[in-house]
Automatic annotation (TrEMBL):
Transmembrane segments: 45-65, 71-88, 100-118, 124-141
Coiled-coil annotated residue ranges, if any: none
Organism phylogeny: Eukaryota, Metazoa, Spiralia, Lophotrochozoa, Annelida
Record-given protein name: PRA1 family protein
Membrane topology term: Multi-pass membrane protein
Organism the protein comes from: Dimorphilus gyrociliatus
Length: 179
């Protein structure tokens, strides 16, 4: 058997019947055993990762369709803020920036603009946070089935690498819990 360490396979899309409908079994996690709860979440993240990705995109787009102007302004605000931070870091001008009175007025103006755009920024953050919250809730409540357990053994043994497996590995959550 040849190890394909660098090949990343996308997990198949699970049926809606298995994901949330008739076959799906949900139960509150045992909050007194955080390791078992975390194990359930990680394994569900691995097994339903394609469904979660589509759910995240769908909810983000739904929020964007409900509030398109606020979403676009919020995205633009984040892009501009990151561009300003990157510019200041690259030019190492933060010490000189603080000394100038004009720059102080500019910073004050940017602060007022930030307050004015706060609703749009919160809409954008809500568009990101809501789908992530829904994924965590589903992964916490969804009981695992036999297919889920077999699939996760393949992922942890290294026969199969998926985007979620790589993400969990990067966050160092892959080896911390037993299957």
């Amino acid at each position: 058997m040849e190890m394909r360490k660098n090949v990343i396979e996308f997990a198949p899309l699970r049926s809606m019947n298995d994901f949330v409908l008739e076959k799906a079994r949900f139960e509150m996690p045992n909050l007194s055993n955080p390791n078992k709860w975390a194990n359930r979440v990680i394994n569900n993240l691995l097994y339903y990762q394609s469904n979660y990705l589509l759910s995240i995109i769908a909810v983000f787009l739904l929020v964007g369709l409900l509030h398109p102007a606020n979403m676009l302004i919020g995205i633009g605000s984040f892009c501009v803020a990151f561009a300003i931070v990157k510019y200041v870091k690259q030019n190492h001008s933060s010490r000189n920036f603080r000394k100038s009175k004009f720059n102080g007025l500019l910073l004050l103006g940017l602060g007022v603009l930030l307050i004015f755009l706060l609703g749009s920024i919160l809409t954008f953050l809500f568009g990101i946070a809501l789908p992530l919250l829904l994924v965590i809730i589903h992964a916490s409540l969804r009981l695992r089935n036999i297919k889920n357990k077999v699939n996760n053994v393949k992922e942890f043994v290294g026969q199969k690498r998926t985007p979620m497996g790589v993400l969990l590995e990067t966050l160092e959550l892959d080896d911390s819990l037993a299957i």
